[in-house]
Design a protein that fits this description.
7 strands, two-stranded antiparallel sheet, alpha+beta, five-stranded mixed sheet, Heat Shock Protein 90
């Protein structure tokens, strides 16, 4: 698809450039030939018997040389424009191509994640229906199991909706003066964490910053077993979430903000690999950076730095 689009775009570029080039070449040729004709006519009128008349053949040859010079120039422009247009069209379409590939990968991953609980639901229901002497306790267990799968799908759907919301909400955030200490306290809820908070006022959207903090705190609790989680806020505008959990390997660190990515150590835990991607988008909307320091079996520190 993109090969055809690139070819078409190249032809559009080429058509525009050559139209302009041929137009100016025509103007130059017409101007030059008109001037040569004028000179030829003037010398016939003013000095018809002079020995120093310009040879009419020379004038015709000059016109011919101008024509072929302009033709050669246009052929050269055609070649250069074709190569340049193909290169520029590739540059133009590259972000679109990358976005399409990312979208395809996202849809594929989302479909896979949704297919797993659906398959589990289908299998359990089919097994239950085949049992002609289904007991009440077995039916209750079946319904409870199905409810868990439904909850998983609901959780995934909510993650996907949040991801889409923050992808397209740059103009919908309500920025105001907020205190980062209050934000992280609200985000931590009833979880038992250690606070080391300094009052820090920044300009941001309260709801999205609370969501960002909640994601980082929940991850810290999940991967540390709920122990030794510390939250720090300090000036000029920094949130730190520290834990002494399982840590992140060096090979996983560059990918932890990719959608649906889960490191080797994280695959044994509940989740879909979307939380940190959402957190990164919220940080980007606030022109903030997220830095990560981590060592296996020693824990991780996520630092959000507001500019």
């Amino acid at each position: 698809m993109f090969t055809k689009a690139r070819t078409k775009l190249t032809l559009y570029y080429l058509g525009i450039i050559m139209t302009i080039s041929l137009f100016f070449s025509f103007i130059i040729y017409q101007g030059a030939t008109i001037e040569l004709t004028r000179i030829e006519n003037m010398q016939k009128i003013r000095r018809p018997n002079s020995a120093f008349l310009i040879d009419p053949d020379l004038i015709a040859e000059t016109k011919s040389r101008i024509f072929f010079s302009l033709l050669t120039l246009n052929i050269f422009i055609l070649g250069v424009s074709g190569v340049s247009g193909y290169f520029l069209s590739g540059k133009t379409l590259k972000p679109i191509s990358e976005m399409m590939e990312e979208q395809k990968e996202f849809i594929s991953n989302a479909s896979h994640e949704l297919r797993t609980p659906l398959a589990s639901l289908k299998t359990e229901i089919e097994v239950g229906l085949r049992d002609k002497e289904l007991k009440l306790k077995t039916a209750i267990d079946l319904i409870r199991s199905n409810l868990e799968e439904v909850n998983n799908m609901t959780k995934l759907s909510n993650y996907l909706l949040e991801l889409n919301k923050f992808q397209n909400s740059s103009g919908n955030l309500k920025f105001s003066k907020v205190n980062l200490a209050d934000i992280v306290k609200e985000a931590s809820g009833k979880n038992k964490v250690k606070f080391n908070l300094e009052k820090v006022i920044i300009n941001g959207d309260k709801d999205s910053l609370t969501e960002l903090s909640r994601i980082l705190i929940d991850n810290a609790i999940k991967y540390s077993g709920g122990n030794n989680v510390e939250i720090v806020t300090r000036k000029p505008g920094i949130i730190e979430v520290k834990d002494k959990g399982i840590g992140i390997s060096e090979k996983d660190l560059p990918h932890i903000f990719d959608r649906f990515y889960r490191g080797d150590k994280a695959r044994g835990k509940d989740g879909y690999g979307l939380g940190l991607s959402i957190a990164k988008q919220i940080a980007d909307l606030h022109s903030a950076r997220i830095k990560v320091e981590s060592k296996l079996s020693k824990g991780s520190t996520f630092k959000v730095i507001f500019s």
